[in-house]
Amino acid sequence: MELKDLKKEYEEINVIGEIVFSSSQIQGKIRELGEQITNDYKDRDLLVISILRGGIFFLTDLVRSINAPLSIDFMGISTYGISDTSGGVVRITKDLEEVIENKHVLVTEDIIDTGLTISYLLRNLKARYPKSIEVCALLDRNIRRMADVNIKYKGFDIGEKYIVGYGLDYKQKFRNLDSIYELKIDAVKKDIESIR
Ligand code: PRP
Question: 116 CB less than 6 Å from ligand 1?
């Protein structure tokens, strides 16, 4: 769905600013990532994992651009206290259906910010003895990074921007926009801890 099609009376529409990445830029980048992943995994069985909820948009487009045998699975997490400088707590609310021992695993994320979520997940998943494990993220915002993360397949760097659309939400809304938009910081200042 495009921003211009959103009803003007939609209460929160005034928080949305300039377009940052258009739908065609996003899809173009995903095709590039898909080609790289296809080359790297063409002779291997791949399990692609997505983190609920926002990451599912990226997952479904990415796997359709990968020309290799693969399956998909999902993890749900909650991130209470993630904004604390003390570290944050990540809790698994939905675990994988698949056993990953001896499998080639690719963990996908829509955005990596502090890096705490993905670091926790990688530690957790590595303890299950996958044959290999790599990270693919559409967006990298590393100015708040608190944990080292090796993002093997990366879409875009986004600097300091707070953004919405293509899976990213503002108060759980706007995930269904095809493009990514900047959030007007003045309009959302009071919510800044709860947005990406
Ligand atoms: C986002 C994103 C990552 C996490 C990254 O999810 O999908 O999982 O934040 O942040 P970090 O690097 O600072 O740990 P979010 O918690 O917003 O949940 P959602 O996908 O349900 O919106």
Answer: yes
